[in-house]
Amino acid sequence: MPQLILSGGSPLSGRVAIEGAKNAALPACVASLLTNEPVVLGRIPDLRDVETILATIASLGKTVSRSDGVVTISHGAMLRDEAESRFVRQMRASFLVLGPLLARLGRAVVPLPGGCTIGPRPVDLHLDGLRQLGAHVERQDTAVIVTTDGLRGADVRLPYPSVGATEQLMIAATLATGETRIENAAREPEILDLASLLSGMGAQIDIDPEGIVIAGGRPLHGAHHRIIPDRIEAGTYLLAGAITGGQVTVEEVEPSHLGGFLPVLEQAGVSLDVGESRITARATARLRATRVTTAPHPGFPTDLHPPLAALLSLAPGESRIEETVFKQRFGYVDPLRRMGARIQVDDVSAVIQGVRELRGASVTAPDLRAGAALVLAGLAADGQTTLCGIEHLERGYARICAKLTALGGRVERTA
Ligand code: EPU
Question: For the whole prediction, is pTM greater than 0.70?
């Protein structure tokens, strides 16, 4: 299996261009199932998860072509109403195909996505919401069979602002007759990006402080859309600059999307310079212990919890990260401990006692963002780190070796 070999101790310095957001690209690809006309998506990152969603969509009948970060999804064969488990098992976002297939064909059979290492990931909110739009849901052991004699707009109040459930309902509601109001909807930038794509396809969507309102039932057409920058990739590179004592500028970003993260980075003792579409993070003489709680947007993003933990493991004093979104997102703790970090998990919080230095070790990434934490730790550690499980890392970070090397990081990928 491929590995990353990281040699720590070189401060990262320079500029890095940020890719399109994985978590905006995936629902955007799914939204193309709503129309037979071509949907052209720019700034699509070159990632395994994107390949998986495109393969899912192609298996459902779409024709997909890709060149220089632009993906064109057009009408191919008749749409199929059954998604294959080999795709949905690999990636939970594939479950989003349920909404558009149901809205267009009146029936969809989609395998249930499994749990994963960051905790249970149920789909009850997706299914309850679709029921309220007039779907009949039959849950089998490994799949759901969902049918409808026509989706109808409804008022849906989500008990939790789930990103996936909000996307599922927004996509389905565009083809439901009448108005759908989603209250307590997720507000992540990726949700707003999906709303912007759907509007470009002819949907009428309004976002107000109480929720998202979709006037459904209009025929949708093709569109050109450019995906927003990846705020999690940007945050990870800023942390990489800070943890190595260097200075990294992320370019082609939208600083307002990082509103819950940047103040925490400053509290941790990192100096920031924020421009219109770039952010520079510079390590100062001393990191500071920090307390933070993850939360839905605009709070501190759960996806930056593990990489932040790597930084705080070197901040003198006691830091605490409370995880409220994925309550088992602590897969990074054991491998970071092997590298010398002092971290205890207390219920849903990581309690971190800062150490003077981390040391290189052989570690395995259990999931994507834990993998990012271990890369940062490896870049800062004394000696060499061998990181296995990089298939997780490569789900979310395009060209990570090349980007880190260009910043002066010493990292090699074995074949
Ligand atoms: N939840 C339910 N029932 C549901 C749906 C969600 O209980 O039907 C719970 C989950 O178990 C979790 C919480 O709600 O505890 C949040 O889940 P949410 O649905 O908001 O997350 P998601 O749509 O599964 C997306 C991102 C995640 C990111 C979260 C939160 C994509 C493809 N994934 O997941 O990204 O952490 O929102 O912001 O958009 C990552 O990129 O590493 C990643 C995990």
Answer: yes
